[in-house]
Every structure is written in structure tokens, then in C-alpha cells.
């Protein structure tokens, strides 16, 4: 067999391996498998400057064993390689090298091996520095940003509170958080133009998920990171990131038209945290300020382009920059949000009243009360709000929370009784599933497919509110008259309405007469007569709220 050529990876590897850790020499056939990769490295432009660094990275990735020192050197080597390539303009082929050895994935694996609840090594800190450096390499780590960030967040957010850290651990903790913020910024700045909106949306969604954690410190750190990302976007209406449009042409990434589809959910969650009495209130306040600046800057840019009217803060109200209350935020955001974003904020408050919710129910009630003070601004999408109530009502058992739901239904009925009644009919008990085909004056939400028994629960809530009974019955009567005037009204729709009326008659008014009438005469005329009897009944003194 021919003499074995020198093995550069083995020399580089042995520099960091202690005598006890040194492994037996590789068999000749093993060296033959690795040797072509060594030769291939010579085409890498940065190889002549960082030969030992490249060889060490290759050897580390090829080895199934590593100690802490080797992990740190591997991460430092990635930083050094990218830094040298950028400094000496030797980046050609570096992206191919990164992909060949899957450096981003190897960094993620190292992060995932770190314990979530303790900080004793530099691996997290160095890993995030390496990720930031990799983001400067074209197309690396494109497509893996979210998984890398999730690995970083999950190994930082659950660490003990800062107050419990001392000495070197505290210093390491500070370095780690700084590295995380820097990594987040560089990943966003270096993202290609077509993926900017998707990446920002996915990061916000990831952070939103972390705010659901049972651990308060994890929620606080997620809120602080939301603030960091929002400030980054707010301070950089045209970020210093560039994308290749041609071989030698680059253009700026402009965030003026950045869309965040979950903005409403995000704001709703922040308002709830801000209204609570736990330690999440302070970071939520900072995150709300940062988001308000982001929204204001975007609207101002649109106004400058002639796409919108003047949207600066009103001088007759306290600026939200100075000791804002929850109401200040609610009023401010109402002016700048799109209609579906406003609705998403309301839905977040409704969902927060579920028994399993991490939110303080009184905080959720106070936020919902604010929305009910300004129904024309916040309660415009009645079908979607009704659908959300329908989906969550069976999971809301706290008496005060159910009272808030009842108040919301009453406000919606006062605001638009037609939509409320039509959507109540859509959300029906089992015998009335045919109402799914009823045409509406205003299109209902497209995802009203929650458990059927919730429809009955909503009727019970509505019929327990004396102020709404007459409006409900009068609206039902109006709907029947309107349909009676159309010659193509289907009998199934007639029967569905009458089923509802019979249900109300038998369960709410204990009227055996009415129930028998329904059984004998299934017609619109009977329904009309039944309603005429029910309206006066609803005004009787004994027909008061059971609550």
C-alpha cells in the first residue's frame, strides 16, 4: 500500500485533545475516505489564511465525541473563519463549505444539549456569536433561522432569574443576553428581501408562544425580546441590509411596508400582561411602547407617500410616551390598526378568561370593559367575536368572567341586534344544524364550527339578560317577516326558526301552551304569533336575570 499522506485534520484535532482522550490511529481505509475532503479544501479562498481553522472545523464535525473545550474552539473557529473571510474579501466558496459540513445544524445540536435551567459554560454565548457570524455568509443560515432561534430562546428564557445569579455566572448571563440580542438583530438585518416579512412574523409568533409559558421568568424574557425586536424595526424604517438583484446590483431592505399578520394577537397579549399585577407588567409596558413606535413610524411613512392622512398623536390626549394607562394604549392603537387587527385584540381578551388561561381574570375583564366602552371602534366584527365566545364559553366557569361575557353579548346586541341574532341562529343546538345554510345580510365568520352545545349555552346567557330579551325577540320577528316576503324561502329555514322559538318557549318561559302550538303548527304564521306572545312575557317582572 502506498505511503499514507499527512493528515491535516488529525494534526489540528490533536492540538486540543488531552493524552487520555487521544484515540487509536485510524485504519488506512478510514484515511482514504477523508483524504479527498482535505484536498478539496484548497479551493476555499479563505483556506490559505485559516488553514488550521478550516481543518479543525472539519475534524470536529466528523467526530462523534467532544468536550467543552472542543465545543468552544469549534464555535470560535466559525467566528474566526467568517471574520477573516469578510475582512480579506475571501468569501467565495464559504457558503458551500458551511453547507457541506452543516455548521448551522451542528450549532443547534450543541445548544440543545445545554440544560435549560442552569448556566455554567460559555457554549450558549459562543453559539449565538457563531450564528450571528454565519448570517453574514450569503444564504447561510437561510431557512434555518427559526429553528436556531427556537433553540437559543429555549436555552435562555428558562434560566433562573438574574437576582439568583452571582459572580462569574452573572457576568456570563449578561454576555449571553447581549449575544442573543445581537444575533437576533443580525439575522433580521441579513435576511433576504423576499423572506423578511415571513421571518419577522415567525419570530413574533415564536415569542408569543413563549409568553404562554407557565414559568413567569420565561414570559418576562419573551416580552423583553419582543421589545428588542420591535425597537429594531421601529428604529430602522430602512434597515442597513442588502439583497442581490443582479450579479453586481444590490438594494436596501425597506421595512416601511412590513406586514405582521399576528399584530392584533400580539397587542392583545401585551395589553393583558400590562394590566396585570405580576412582574410581566413592566416588560409589557416597554414592548407596547416599542410596538407603538413601530406602527407610528410605518403609518407616517405611508402618509409621506400619500397613502394615508396625517396620523400623528393627538395633542388633546396624553401621549403614550408619558406614563400611559391601559386606556391610553387602547385608544392609541384603535386609530392605527386595521379592522381585523382590532378584532384579534378583542379575541385575545375573551380567550384570556378561560379557566386554564395564565392571565389574571380581573386584568382580562378590565381590558374587555375598555373595549365595551367604545363598541363602534372595537366591536365591529360581530360574527367573529360571537364565534370566539361560542368556542370559549364552555371553558369559562368563573362567575365574574361569565358576567363579563354576558355584558359583552349585551353590548353586541345593543350595537347590532341583527348580526347577533343571525349568528346566534348559526350557533345552534343539534336540532338546528340546518341553519348553517341560512343566508346573511353580513357575511359570518368562515370558521364557526365549534361544539354545538355551546350554541345553547349562548342562548341561555342571552336570555338571562332582561335588557336583551325584547331586542332578540323583535329581531327574530323582523327576520321572519323579511323571509316571509320572499317566495323562495325554504321550509327547512322556517322549521329552524320555529325550533329556536319553541326552545325559548319551553326552556325560558316554561310555557307548555307554546310548546304544544309549535308541535301542531310548523309555519311562519305560528312563529309570528308565538313571538307576539313571547315579547310581552319577556317584560313581566318575574322574567328577571337568573344570575
TrEMBL record:
Pfam families: HEAT_Maestro (PF21047), HEAT_Maestro_2 (PF23210). Residues 258-472 form the Maestro-like HEAT-repeats domain. It comes from the Eukaryota. InterPro entries: ARM-type_fold, HEAT_MROH2B-like, Maestro-like_HEAT, Maestro_heat-like_prot. Residues 56-189 form the MROH2B-like HEAT-repeats domain. GO terms for cellular component: cytoplasm. PANTHER family: MAESTRO HEAT-LIKE REPEAT FAMILY MEMBER 3, MAESTRO-RELATED HEAT DOMAIN-CONTAINING. This is Protein mroh8.
Amino acid at each position: 500500500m502506498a505511503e499514507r499522506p499527512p493528515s491535516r485534520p488529525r494534526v489540528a484535532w490533536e492540538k486540543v485533545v488531552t493524552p487520555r482522550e487521544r484515540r487509536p490511529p485510524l485504519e488506512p481505509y478510514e484515511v482514504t475516505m477523508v483524504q479527498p475532503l482535505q484536498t478539496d479544501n484548497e479551493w476555499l479562498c479563505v483556506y490559505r489564511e485559516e488553514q488550521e481553522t478550516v481543518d479543525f472545523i472539519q475534524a470536529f464535525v466528523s467526530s462523534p465525541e467532544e468536550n467543552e473545550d472542543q465545543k468552544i474552539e469549534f464555535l470560535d473557529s466559525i467566528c474566526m473563519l467568517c471574520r477573516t473571510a469578510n475582512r480579506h474579501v475571501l468569501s467565495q466558496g464559504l457558503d458551500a463549505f458551511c453547507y457541506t459540513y452543516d455548521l448551522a445544524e451542528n450549532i443547534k445540536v450543541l445548544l440543545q444539549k445545554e440544560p435549560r435551567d442552569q448556566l455554567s459554560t460559555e457554549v450558549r454565548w459562543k453559539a449565538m456569536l457563531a450564528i450571528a457570524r454565519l448570517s453574514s455568509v450569503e444564504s447561510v443560515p437561510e431557512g434555518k433561522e427559526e429553528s436556531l432561534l427556537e433553540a437559543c430562546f429555549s436555552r435562555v428564557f428558562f434560566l433562573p432569574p438574574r437576582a439568583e445569579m452571582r459572580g462569574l455566572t452573572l457576568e456570563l448571563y449578561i454576555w449571553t443576553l447581549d449575544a442573543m440580542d445581537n444575533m437576533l438583530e443580525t439575522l433580521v438585518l441579513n435576511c433576504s428581501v423576499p423572506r423578511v416579512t415571513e421571518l419577522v412574523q415567525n419570530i413574533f409568533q415564536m415569542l408569543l408562544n413563549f409568553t404562554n409559558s407557565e414559568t413567569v421568568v420565561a414570559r418576562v424574557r419573551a416580552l423583553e425580546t419582543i421589545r428588542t425586536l420591535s425597537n429594531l424595526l421601529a428604529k430602522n424604517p430602512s434597515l442597513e441590509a442588502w439583497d442581490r438583484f443582479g450579479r453586481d446590483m444590490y438594494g436596501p431592505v425597506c421595512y416601511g411596508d412590513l406586514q405582521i399578520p399576528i399584530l392584533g394577537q400580539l397587542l392583545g397579549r401585551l395589553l393583558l400582561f400590562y394590566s396585570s399585577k405580576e412582574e410581566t407588567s413592566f416588560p409589557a409596558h416597554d414592548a407596547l411602547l416599542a410596538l407603538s413606535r413601530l406602527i407610528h413610524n410605518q403609518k407616517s411613512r405611508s402618509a409621506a407617500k400619500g397613502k394615508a392622512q396625517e396620523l400623528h398623536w393627538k395633542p388633546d390626549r396624553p401621549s403614550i410616551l408619558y406614563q400611559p394607562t391601559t386606556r391610553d394604549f387602547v385608544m392609541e392603537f384603535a386609530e392605527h390598526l386595521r379592522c381585523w387587527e382590532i378584532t384579534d385584540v378583542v379575541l385575545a381578551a375573551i380567550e384570556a378568561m378561560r379557566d386554564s388561561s395564565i392571565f389574571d381574570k380581573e386584568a382580562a375583564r378590565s381590558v374587555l370593559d375598555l373595549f365595551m366602552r367604545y363598541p363602534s371602534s372595537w366591536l365591529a366584527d360581530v360574527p367573529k367575536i360571537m364565534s370566539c365566545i361560542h368556542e370559549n364559553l364552555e371553558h369559562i366557569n368563573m362567575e365574574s368572567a361569565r358576567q363579563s361575557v354576558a355584558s359583552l353579548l349585551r353590548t353586541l346586541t345593543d350595537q347590532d341586534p341583527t348580526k347577533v341574532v343571525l349568528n346566534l341562529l348559526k350557533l345552534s343546538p343539534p336540532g338546528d344544524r340546518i341553519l348553517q345554510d341560512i343566508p346573511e345580510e353580513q357575511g359570518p365568520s368562515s370558521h364557526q364550527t365549534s361544539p354545538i352545545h355551546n350554541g345553547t349555552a349562548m342562548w341561555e346567557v342571552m336570555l338571562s339578560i332582561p335588557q336583551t330579551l325584547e331586542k332578540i325577540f323583535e329581531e327574530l320577528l323582523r327576520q321572519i317577516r323579511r323571509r316571509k316576503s320572499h317566495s323562495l324561502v325554504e321550509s327547512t329555514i322556517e322549521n329552524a326558526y320555529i325550533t329556536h322559538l319553541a326552545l325559548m318557549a319551553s326552556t325560558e318561559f316554561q310555557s307548555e301552551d307554546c310548546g304544544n302550538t309549535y308541535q301542531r303548527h310548523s309555519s311562519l304564521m305560528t312563529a309570528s304569533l308565538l313571538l307576539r306572545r313571547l315579547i310581552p312575557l319577556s317584560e313581566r317582572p318575574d322574567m328577571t336575570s337568573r344570575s
